[in-house]
Amino acid sequence: MDPFQTPLTYLKGAGQTRAEVLKKELAIATFEDLLRHFPFRYIDRTKFYKVKDINPDLPYVQVLARVISKQIVGEKHTKRLVVQTRDDTGTLELVWFKGINWIDKTIVPGTVYIVFGKAGSFNGQAQMAHPEMEIYSPANMQRQGNATLQPVYNSTEKLKQFQLDSKGIQKLTATLLGLHAKDIKENLPLYIIQHFKLLGRADAYRNIHFPADANLLNEALHRLKFEELFLLQLKLLRNKMLHTQKFKGNIFGTVGHYFNDFYHHKLPFQLTTPQKRVLKEIRQDTQRGVQMNRLLQGDVGSGKTVVALMAMLIAVDNGFQTCIMAPTEILASQHYQTISTLVGDGFIEVALLTGSTKQKDRRVLHQKLESGEMKILIGTHALIEDKVQFKNLGFVIIDEQHRFGVEQRARLWRKNVVPPHILVMTATPIPRTLAMTLYGDLDVSVIDELPAGRKPIQTLHFFDNQRLRVFGFMKKEIALGRQIYIVYPLIKESEKLDLKNLEEGIEIISREFPLPEYKISIVHGKLKPADKEFEMQRFIKGQTQIMVATTVIEVGVNVPNASVMIIENAERFGLSQLHQLRGRVGRGAEQSYCILMSSHKLSHDGKIRLNTMVKTNNGFEISEIDLQLRGPGNLDGTQQSGVLDLKVANLATDQELLFKARKTVEQIFTKDPQLALPENQVLHHAFETKNAGLSWDKIS
Ligand code: ADP
Ligand code: MG
């Protein structure tokens, strides 16, 4: 039995109560959990600051100070514990807002403490909130082994009541390593360790907790990051391989008259190079007898829909039915319109199925699907209901994939004996590192070039006090016959404020653009769906020149005549949202503009976001910057994914390492797909442990 699966109760010094609290508070239940509760910071405990030298610009510091007095002040939620301390250079005030009673009990006036925390200042007085306190004694200054850097661990107020503050956790970890470090088994092949000059696993664990020096800490981190990324890729790529072996796929052997007719007689433009490449990739995928699982990424307007249609026509040419599933009715009906227009009359029947399809039409449709007469179906979730049966569904396109759950996708699969080929389309480009991880077991296609002749959208940033210029510009555009969006943020936390902004905005716009010369559509989340639809339609038909809206228009409005997108309070939107909004214009032949309005008060990140928008139209570039700003867990479309729960590695900063790990895994599988070689035996272990905390059900 693996000693690291031992419950923590059995660790000397843990005990039943403390083990229970650790489990409850930090989900640390076993030796392994404790071992993998890594420090989130280290401090050089050899250095003490003087009170007069500390200031808010410093990181966490420690000072030696004597407690002079302590006092609980305030009532209810202003209640706090204030402790005055001093060294020979000045006074330092310590404050606690939580766990007051317990901390009060532990602090003894007159005693010298090692006070550890981040300095702030309040009315010119140096202050620390919730510092860690340790009674100073020469014995306390002794360090663990030969470590010069001391680990700081996450803890909670509750744990602190059981002497499990950072220090307490440190002691347990030291005990564990002392007893069991020798049992930590290597899990990477020796030749890889040698090739990349990695620290051994046991050494890595020792040094991530108690680094002998900064160098070894870095090496430990490097090793554990590599291990994490490597094992993740190993699982993803093995999954992909198993998948390929397990699922047969329909063979689309021929390109027939539907495709050829469309290509030669109906396609109104030349395909771009990436569009051709993607079609070729799909062609290859669908001739191998293996189920295709492909992700198609491309900016709004890059021409994904045409590619999808042409791939569908190939499926039809081979006797199969196909469908597109979109996340909203608006998107579904838009696809329906686009595709109906592209194929024209009398070529092939295309049907739309959504929640609002009438019962009567629905029955007819169901029959046509069951008999196989209907070949191309476009719809929403309505299309995966059990009532909808296909005769021979061979190819499925899922638009905007992250809105569909695993279960929903699985239901599509079950609609045929041989699972249909799947193409997932997304207009939210994500960085390569994320794609490699989130969709590591999918094949990825990219359309990274817009159709020729399209004028890039010009993006400008104006401050609120330059509004008059913007109005002037709007009038000029309207005089040229163009239409304009004005978008206000709608962020849940401050819905009231947002509504107020919107209302004020509407008032100003209505005054500046009065009837009868100007007509305005107003769309926001508080409208009834029917009213919303009515207002949208007025704009779509060109009956109004301005659409004032909250972000409801983000998805799925297509008005080629709209050439200006004005985004109010642009600093409050995330990058990908700004990019999506901007994608609403630039759909026609005219030069389009995106105008970002903001106040002068911009945060550091806010500035970067707006500058990025002004600088580039490329969604992939924007997603890379978004990743740097927000970190991997917060990008749109990634939140639900457990795959990103990496413990040591960071997809934003460890890109190179990820590429290395991925490449190494690919090489291993090329040479030894079954991992049968003796030197790769050690890798089998990876599939038996939960190690990187992954869930494997996410794609299929
Ligand atoms: P996406 O779905 O990627 O947002 P669409 O497929 O809706 O993009 O295409 C956007 C617009 O560009 C549509 O009007 C489409 O007809 C047009 N389009 C697509 N591909 C080309 C091309 N190769 N050349 C010119 N126009 C194109
Ligand atoms: Mg589209």
Automatic annotation (TrEMBL):
Residue stretches making up the Helicase C-terminal domain: 466-633
Keywords of this entry: ATP-binding, DNA damage, DNA recombination, DNA repair, DNA-binding, Helicase, Hydrolase, Isomerase, Nucleotide-binding
Reaction(s) catalysed by this chain's protein: Couples ATP hydrolysis with the unwinding of duplex DNA by translocating in the 3'-5' direction; ATP + H2O = ADP + phosphate + H(+)
Protein name: ATP-dependent DNA helicase RecG
Enzyme Commission numbers on file: 5.6.2.4
One matching Pfam family: RecG_wedge
Gene (name only): recG
The keyword rRNA-binding is assigned to this record: no
Helicase ATP-binding domain segment(s): 285-447
Biological source species: Mucilaginibacter ginsenosidivorax
Xref: SMART domains: DEXDc (SM00487), HELICc (SM00490)
Function: Plays a critical role in recombination and DNA repair. Helps process Holliday junction intermediates to mature products by catalyzing branch migration. Has replication fork regression activity, unwinds stalled or blocked replication forks to make a HJ that can be resolved. Has a DNA unwinding activity characteristic of a DNA helicase with 3'-5' polarity.
GO process annotations (BP): DNA recombination; DNA repair
Lineage: Bacteria, Pseudomonadati, Bacteroidota, Sphingobacteriia, Sphingobacteriales
Top-rank EC class of the record's enzyme: isomerase
GO molecular function, a single term: 3'-5' DNA helicase activity
Stretch forming the signal peptide: none
